[in-house]
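Note to self: the last two entries modelled the partners one at a time, which told us nothing about the interface. This time every component goes in together.
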Amino acid sequence: MIHVENLYKTFFVPHKVKALHNVNLNIDAGEVVVVIGPSGSGKSTLLRCLNQLETANSGKILIDGIDVMDPKTNINKIRAEVGMVFQSFNLFPHKTVLENITLAQITVRKRSKADAHDKAMHLLEKVGITDKARVYPDQLSGGQQQRVAIARALAMDPKVMLFDEPTSALDPEMIGEVLDVMKNLAGEGMTMVVVTHEMGFAREVADRVIFMDQGAVVEVGTPEHFFTNPEHDRTKLFLSQIL
Amino acid sequence: MTMLGNQIKKPSYVLSITLFFLMLAGIIGGIYYATLQIDYVWRWYRVPQYFLFHDKMEVKSEIEGDVSSISVSGKQTMITVKDTDQEESYVVTDGTLLVDEGDRIYPGDTLAFQKKWKAGILMQGLWLTLKVSFIAIIFGILIGLFGGLARISANPALRWSAITYVELIRGSPLLVQIFIWYFVLGTLINTILAKQNMWQVPPLWFGVAALACFTGAYVAEIVRAGIQSIHRGQSEASRSLGMTYVQCMVHVILPQAFRRIIPPLAGQFISLIKDSSLLGIIAIRELTKATREVVTTSLQPFELWFVCAILYLVLTFTFSMFLQYLERRTLSQ
Ligand SMILES: Nc1ncnc2c1ncn2[C@@H]1O[C@H](COP(=O)(O)OP(=O)(O)OP(=O)(O)O)[C@@H](O)[C@H]1O
Ligand SMILES: [Mg+2]
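The predicted structure of the combined assembly is written out below.
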């Protein structure tokens, strides 16, 4: 489903940073991959390159067989197939919960208002917030906002979901409700790439864990492997710090 | 909240207010006293006629004949002049008749005086100021919107055009720009049009263009700042859903930016209404120019300039009230 080959990304402003350094990756359909690594290791950059919020300097990215970095590819079409959930939710504050979920359905997927509405209500039910459809995002708790953001991404019927630290901005008591939604999603067979520090989530639902450091993939393995006998010293050091 | 720092006790509050009104009365009284020293005669009663006046119009016959009938129905009177081979009827509303039935009439004879309310010069000037400001604001918004978007565009040609435009306009006086529009561009355009035997662009449009371009540059900067004040996550979220740049702007960024730019826009447009007073120098008879003309004929400069200032105040105050209402409405949803 996702194929990444020799991916390089360097930032020059404000100073030179090799955010991604020769990253290679294959993710199959239905797989749940958790990406871990210290701050600044390039996790977000990798995710953002996958849906072209960031343009890599060189390398190749195929999503569902389509070359994402080819200038001839209609990137908006790809993005509609790749849902993204952000650390800071990024809900549209001037639109109600319902409008947040219907907007892209109507403008991008060209669905009728009624269809988009039905889909939104169905998804709100799925993430457990049916009673808040008509309120504005700032009237919701962080956990509720993130669940709306997940519903907003799911409304496009994406083939892949990217999560960039979806629970990092949440109060501890709200983390569980968001992770539950994600677990259900994994159970339904969604292809997911999740950047998170929630090792419990990784252990429970990840098919594979990827450890990144300084822009490179250092170690790949099952959660089992990471928790019992991690290979590299850097991996050991990192895990000892967060566990 | 902000008052907490310098709260004032009740007695001294009353004292301050009293002082304020005393000062106001002092200034007005002082000016009035000074005008008495130079034997200025205040004639406020002469002012209203420059807004609205009762015009006396003559109704004249175009043919020769006899007044065959005068029929009155309510305020309207119909006078019919009849000759052997022709007949003509004149309707007079609210007028004074000068002829009787059977009178012999020759072409050009006055049949009646008719009174009619007409807008005076000041009223016309006020209307023109409103019209010019309104059109310039509309075009200013359009220019500013595109200018602001071009200013943050990834395309260097667009970006540099926008920067050049904004810097040129903001770097020179509006008066000079009006001269350039009228005497340089206006002469060029109208001479070329004249050579093609085509219609001439009236000065009004060069004035409006100057104001619109001037305001557009400032609006562009306001729009740019408004858009940039919206968190990057908003555009990333909408783009990640597959929305195009235009969809993202229209549905997500601009509606949010709009709320934030209403207050600075209001200030800009109020400046524009006041700056339209400069258009008088290119023969556009807006409020200030109209006032100047009335002053030269009426010889009542003191009353008229105060009236002129108050009229601008009414315009700008109404406008700012309207925008405050708009702001409250967009915020309260
Ligand atoms: N837009 C940008 N401009 C400049 N440098 C950037 C930009 N985005 C990321 N970087 C740099 O690239 C490196 C990788 O950043 P990235 O955000 O991918 O790390 P991360 O693994 O997601 O870290 P965190 O856990 O803190 O989110 C960092 O050194 C960061 O400073
Ligand atoms: Mg990150």
